[in-house]
Amino acid sequence: MPRPSVRGKLLETALEQFQAQGFNGCGVQDITNAAGVPKGSFYNHFASKEALALEVLEQYSQGSRPDLLTDETVPPIDRLRAHFAFLSDRLEGWHFAKGCLLANFGGEIADTNPAVREAMAAFFERWVSAVGVVLRQAQVQGEIDARHDPDQLARFLVYAWEGAVIGAKVMKSRGPLDDFFAVSFDRLLARPA
Fold this sequence. Notes:
Blueprint: H1 6-21, H2 28-35, H3 39-45, H4 49-62, H5 67-70, H6 76-93, H7 101-108, H8 114-140, H9 150-171, H10 175-188
């Protein structure tokens, strides 16, 4: 098995450090120590901690299994539930200690770091758009009420999810996630009567 590159180690370790300690809670030295690489090698790969954070955000977006939303062999609402269930299982696997990188960065540095804020905004826009596509398909197939504005509903679901993630991290419990599923899927997205 090939050894991971220094760059790969730094990205992987930075994600772990940012999720566990936040952007401001860890420095370049903490990241390089945890990765087991010399601090000087960091600057061979990244111009700054901000540049690293931007790449970590991009990598993080790839790990959220966007394919779950686009698999049209699965009914739309089932796809949407599977997407959020995957995210929920990942959080539970982390024992609710890490939370969502977007929520963590959003609360910590969105006001002080314009480049990271813009990257997060773009991430949210892509996510909301993907959820909106699924909701439109669900409306066409009669799975949800056609009176819903799919874009508004998509924004609500994504941001309600982020709030539930923060609640789960604070409570160290999946209770807020269960509430998200109950309200979102059993009530709001229930098949019209």
